[in-house]
Amino acid sequence: MVTGTKTTGTKGYKKVKGTLIIEGHELTITNPDKPLWPEAQITKLDYLQNLLQLAPYLLRYCRNRHLTTIRFPHGYGDKSFYQKNAPEPVPDFVNLAPLSGINYVNLDSLPTLIWLGNLACLEFHPSFHYIGETTPAEWVIDIDPSLEEEPRIMLAAQLIGEALEAMHIQSVPKTSGATGVQIYIPIQRGYSFDQLRKLGHFIGSYAVNKYPRLFTIERFKKNRGDLIYIDYLQHAYGKTLSAPYTPRARKDATISTPLLWKEVALNPSPREFNQHTIIDRLNSMGDLIDQTPLQNLDFVLEHIGAK
C-alpha cells in the first residue's frame, strides 16, 4: 500500500509520495495515480502491480545483462529518453554492470525492477550477452516491417520459422510489442556472434530469394519499400533488443510476448498481448521460451562453412 499526502498535479492526477517495503528494501513511490497508458487505463500504481507479477519472467531475460531502458516520465505518449547509465542516486540494493565507460543497471532483483518502474521506465532492453562475457546468450532474428501496419508480419514470421524447422532448429516467435516479430532461439553455450551472423545472413538470403516480394535484407529503410526486413545484424555484441515480457510504450500497453507457432498461423494482432491479458496467459501457458531446449547448431554451421 502506498500512502502519503495528496496534491493536485498540473495534469490533473493526484500527487502522492509514499513507501513500499520489497524484500526488506524501502522504496519511495511517487505519483501512483499518474496515467502512464491513459487509453488502456493504466496508472503508475497499476503498472507497478503488473511488474510485480511479470517479475519472475522478465527478470529471467534481464538478469546478469547490461540493461538499457526507455523512460517516459509523463506516460507513453509524451517525451521519452534512453537510459543507459544508471539513474542517480542509485539505491544500495541496485547492482551495476559497467561496460565501455557506462554504468549499466543489472536488473537482477524485484526491488530494482520496481525502482525502475517508479522512474517510469516503460521498456527494458537487455544486452544479447551476459555480464563479463562476449558470446551470445541466445540467438534472435528480428523480423521488422517497413510499414507501420503490416498484415503480413505473422506470415513472414511463420515462413522463417518453417526454414528453421527444416534445419531441425526449434524456435519461439515473440511479438516485439511494437510492429515486428522476433524469432527467439535458445542455444547451447559456445557459439560466437560472428557464427550466428553468418547463419542469419544465410537464412535471410534464402528467404529473399524464395519470397522476393515479401522479404529484404536491405539495411537502409528508405530502400526497402514495403518489404519486411530480416534483421540478422542487430544480434551483436553490445547491442540490445526488447526483452521477452517487457512492456512497450504503445497505446494498447502491449507486452513482448512469446507465442506458439499454431497461434502465429492464426495471424493474431500484437495488440492482443498486453498488460491486461499477459498474466492469465502466463498462468495457463508458462514461459514458452524456457520450455524450449537449448539448440545445437553445429551441423548447420558446418553446412554453411561457419563452424
From TrEMBL:
Q: Which GO terms describe its molecular function?
A: DNA ligase (ATP) activity
Q: Does the keyword Ligase apply?
A: yes
Q: Which residues form the DNA ligase D polymerase domain?
A: 43-288
Q: From which domain of life does this come?
A: Bacteria
The record's section on Pfam families has: LigD_Prim-Pol (PF21686)
InterPro entries according to UniProt: LigD_pol_dom, NHEJ_LigD
The EC category is ligase
- Write the record's keywords in alphabetical order, separated by commas: Ligase
Query: What's the EC number here?
Result: 6.5.1.1
Q: Does the keyword Ligase apply?
A: yes
Which NCBIfam families does the entry mention?
Answer: ligD_pol
Which PANTHER family does this entry report, sorted A to Z? BIFUNCTIONAL NON-HOMOLOGOUS END JOINING PROTEIN LIGD (PTHR42705)
By what name is this protein known? Bifunctional non-homologous end joining protein LigD
Organism, by scientific name, is Paenibacillus eucommiae
